[in-house]
Each structure stands twice: as structure tokens, then as C-alpha cells.
Amino acid sequence: MIDLKNVDNVLQNVTGKDFLNAERQARQMGDQTASIVLSGQFQTILLANALKVPVEDIEELPVAEFVQALSKVNTFLFAQDSVKDSK
To answer: How far apart are the first and last CA of the chain?
Structure first.
């Protein structure tokens, strides 16, 4: 069972290298989303890598938990964007 309560804390430890690795994996799987941060596949991979679980564990979550988890990833990714804009 995946502990989704820790998602926010785990995402704080994601590095640029983690981001690029997740993007590479998503692209290798055929993801052609113009902006990778909008890709559900990318977000799933990024989260799985951050939690150190197989991607399949995230994909197999009940849909409500899956959407909630990706929402946290989305919020995290776009919060970084707003921090940059405020400087």
C-alpha cells in the first residue's frame, strides 16, 4: 500500500535529474505532450520515482486516489512556476 499522505514531503526532494529522468522515461513510452509537466504519464513516473515504488503501483491505485496523487504532483510542479514568477 502506498502512503499518499507523504507525497508533498517526498516531492520536496525531487531534483532536476529526477525530473529529466522522468521526462526521458515518459518520452521513451511515446508521450508527445508538448509541455511535459502537463503529462499524466510524466507525473505518474515522477511520483513513482520520488516514492521509490514501481510506476505500476501508482497506476493501480483506485482512480480517486490516483487523481488525488496526481493533483498533488500538479500543484507541486506549478507552485515551482509561481515561485519563479514572483522573483
So the answer is: 39
CA distance 44 to 22: 9
Residue 2, pLDDT score? 78
Block means of pLDDT (10 residues each) for the chain, length 87 residues?
Answer: 85 96 97 96 97 96 96 90 55
CA 60/CA 84 separation, integer angstroms: 34
What domain count does the chain have? 1
- Which residues lie closer than 8 Å to 59 by C-beta, 6 or more apart? 44, 66
For residue 9, give its domain range.
Answer: 4-85
Task: Compute the distance between CA of residue 69 and CA of residue 47 in angstroms, rounded to an integer.
Answer: 8
- Cα(54)–Cα(45) distance, rounded to whole angstroms? 9
